[in-house]
Amino acid sequence: MLMRSERSGDQPLIEARGLSVCVNGHDIINDIDLAIFPGQIVTLIGPNGAGKTTLVRALLGLVPYRQGKVMLARGLKIGYMPQRLRIDPIVPLTVQRFLTLNNRVARAEVRHALREVGASHVESAPVQVISGGEFQRVLLARALLRDPTVLVLDEPAQGVDVAGQGELYKLIAAIRDRRGCAVLMISQDLHLVMEAADSVICLNHHVCCTGLPEAVSRHPEYLKLFGALRPGGLAIYTHHHDHQHNLHGCVVPLSDNRGNTDADSR
User: Which residues contact 24 (CB under 8 A, 6 or more apart)?
Assistant: First the structure.
């Protein structure tokens, strides 16, 4: 069976060639080549500080790159779900109001997006009181309100309990199938995304290996970073974070009123 990226006539929606980003004299990513095609789910994995978030932000034009080239398809629309947002706990903000901030959409569109992600029941709730899993679904709805060509998800299962993580990844795959959008996703959980992902890129400042999830999980470079998958399919991997994002997607010091402590360090 052909992968989505191998279909005749497909042109990349996002393509990077020789992409390198340097911060304060340190190479964060170096000589990265990748392409994201219509309808494809591409997952970036890698150890803490490997440059996953930096790569995504460079592709989106949010950070400058030292060398290389990024090419975006004409008319491309990005729906971006950041790793976390900091919301002041004293600001009275309902989910419905949150989804319309800097986003001119009708209430019917908000309700449709919430229904699509399975979060209709929190529309009138203050964002500060909903659960971590509900908040991630609200962030996903916010990204979908852009009617994206490419859905960019930075650790979408952040703050979601183990039981809910698999359901969230199934939801993302269903959204891809229904909308036909491409998905670029950062995840630390290869065992959870294996069923949904079409392609996995293992990153550690450079591309260590890439390909089908099953092939990557057996690749020597992946095994060197993460170790073999245990019989139950769970890779031993500890992930720590040291920052979060505000409502505009900017990095701010870690101070999460929602009680979560993880955020990607690069």
Answer: none
**Contacts of residue 43, Cβ cutoff 8 Å, sequence gap at least 6:** 185, 186, 187, 190, 193, 197, 199, 200, 201, 213
pLDDT of residue 9: 54
CATH number for the domain including 22? 3.40.50.300
- For the packed helices 107-116 and 132-144, what is the interaxial angle rounded to 10 degrees? 120
pLDDT tens digits along 4-21: 444 545 899 999 999 999
Number of domains observed in the structure of the chain: 1
Rounded to two decimals, the pTM is 0.79
Q: Tell me if 29 sits within 8 A of 206, measured CB to CB.
A: yes
3-state SS class at 55: helix
Q: How many CB atoms lie within 10 A of CB 253?
A: 8
Tens digits of residue pLDDT in 155-170: 998 878 887 888 888 9
Is-contact 257 87, C-beta < 8 A? yes
What is the span of the domain harbouring residue 42?
A: 4-84+150-171+182-253
